[in-house]
Amino acid sequence: SATAGGGFDPFASLGGLTSDLDASLASLATSLTVKQSAAAKPGPAAASGNSTAQPAAPAAAPAAAPAPARIRTPVLTRSPTYNIAHLQACATGQAMSYRASLNLPKFAIPVRRPARSPSTPSGLRRLWAEAYAWQLRDGRPRQVFSLHDGPPYANGKPHVGHALNKVLKDSVSRYQLLRGRQVRFRLGWDCHGLPIELKAKPTQSAAGSDSAEPAADCSPANQIRQRARAFADQCIAEQRLAFQHWGVLSASAEHYETKSPGYVARQLLAFDRLHSLGLVYRSFLPVHWSDSSATALAEAELVYRDDHRSDSAFVLMPLIRLSADASAPEALRDSGGEQQPRHHLLVWTTTPWTLPANAAVAVGPGMRYSLRRLPDGRTVVVAASWPGFGGGGGGGGGGGGVELGEPLAEFPADALIGATYRHPFSNAECPVLPSDHVTEDKGTGLVHVAPAHGREDFQLGIKFKLPLVSMVTEAGRFGGPGLSESLEELNGRHCLTEGSGAVLDLLRRRSLLAHTEALVHSYPYDWRTGRPVMLRASSQWFLDTAGLRDRALTALDTVRILPDREAGAMRAFVAARPYWCISRQRVHGVPIPVLYDESTGDPVYDSQLTRRFAEHVAETGQRRLLLRHRRLKKSGDIFDIWMDSGLSWAVAGEAGDLDADGQASLCVEGQDQFRGWFSSSLLL
């Protein structure tokens, strides 16, 4: 039985069952009455009789009344027997019904909730709002308990995840209120980012917009912004009403939004502060790039899947010459020359699509290498400990019939450092360099280096001044000025799909592909679109986390993380985070207040302009920067949304929601926020 609130009422169900039993018993009583009346009528013989009158018989004693009919009932009753007369009385409503005779529980509180009047929900919402306001204006000195709300996305209707989050917080705040503390709990919403922007795009008739942009600007980007803000406002209203309906004890009427003018102005000033401290910079670096979202991603926006499948490749790099200073064995020195190289560097990679951008091969300092022969007679340089093809992870024996001969020579890594090899797709000579990120546990001990597509590769490229060549577009396809004519057949192919196979075909036609293996391994995916991402060099703005790491870890020591076993997860993430990419190539968000020289593309930053822009946003709510300058242009990037939400503590402090030390007593969020809101709040 469904109650008014949508729940299950067992007593209402039992009541319906007993009503059916009453009707059945009434029908039975009527049937028994008809049969009893038929039995009492005289038979045909007695009715016809003889015409001769018979003397009347003396009056006999009345016959004993028949025993009342016994009806077995399926439940315990006050009276286990019913006679015909009682059943007839029940049927006519003159006696107690069968339902009333059941031994049902008796409660002082009604088991059925009375129907709500239309004013009941609004009355409850008003009651809890007044209760929260009352405990704030209570004049008695009380200790402050600050519960800082991590802002959920304003991108959908309220669901069970919201209920779990808010009920946990509400339970704590009510408990602290009963302990005599003054509770400060302000709700908030995260209003920017790709999830809201994507939902706003198909909404062609979103009603309303905020005043952040004039209605006269009808550019596609501005239309997306207006629809996104209207959509966020609608979601906030629905979620806020649900939280009030659940009775959450909070300052819901004075919530915060990351898109409000005051919040945006505070974020612009925070960027100016970070810039003045030298903690933000712009650079051309490899970042996780999502072609499905068309933007760079931070580490916190990645999901690593262990079932990703790649085609790993063992590639032959023709060895041209050794360094003059290298102490190499004679077998290695007899390389055959530049025209007909006899020895090859055997490189293993799980990203064949990055091979066109190869700039060097790295070897591990202190490792030992050997010269071994392939079945076709060519010799290859591999790590001395490498077991051979097959087995996944770049080695392990087997290998589909490709066997290596016994070692012809063994030598240290120093014999290879400074050598040169021929690029697999051009005639360029590339160097062999030492690098500590080369290990013996995976691959052949020789690592292909593409500075535009790897962080360690990029650092090695900076150290040895390698060319930084990127031939992958924002759509994740081969193209752009970096793509040479010899690789024209790759143009337009998607790197992670058909492009990777096309690169392997090129290597196979050049007789430089020794072996391929299917490999299932961990790989990063875009947490929003569920599509794999790539490391791709692009110009972005970064926050120097290395300059904040020590202070952040020291501050983390003063925070208790529950459950205790999870404390190490956040510490490990903060300690290992190399840098934070804070720029995004989207339209709905807080604009990065930077100008660029149109002729050179160099950033031009003016602190005074940023502060004036922040004042303008706070006063008018408009985020437009009217710029008419023949040499300068505005930035089209926005801030990472984790920087938006990560500054909520600053807004809470200005609103007086924190304790006397400017800290929150408690933050309650999911474990996934160690990489998201928790870490961004800590760093900022």
From TrEMBL:
The entry's family comment says: Belongs to the class-I aminoacyl-tRNA synthetase family.
Task: Report domain Aminoacyl-tRNA synthetase class Ia positions.
Answer: 129-683
What GO terms are given for molecular function? Answer: aminoacyl-tRNA deacylase activity; ATP binding; isoleucine-tRNA ligase activity
**Listed Pfam families:** tRNA-synt_1 (PF00133)
Q: What is its EC number?
A: 6.1.1.5
| Enzyme class of the recorded protein, top EC level | ligase
Q: What is the official name of this protein in its record?
A: isoleucine--tRNA ligase
Instruction: Offer a single GO CC term for the protein.
Output: mitochondrion
Sorted UniProt keywords: Aminoacyl-tRNA synthetase, ATP-binding, Ligase, Nucleotide-binding, Protein biosynthesis
List, alphabetically, the Gene3D superfamilies matched: HUPs, Valyl/Leucyl/Isoleucyl-tRNA synthetase, editing domain
Q: What residue spans carry the region label Disordered? A: 37-67
Tell me which PANTHER family the record gives. ISOLEUCINE--TRNA LIGASE, MITOCHONDRIAL (PTHR42765:SF1), SOLEUCYL-TRNA SYNTHETASE (PTHR42765)
Q: Tell me a GO biological process for this protein.
A: isoleucyl-tRNA aminoacylation
Highest taxon, organism lineage: Eukaryota
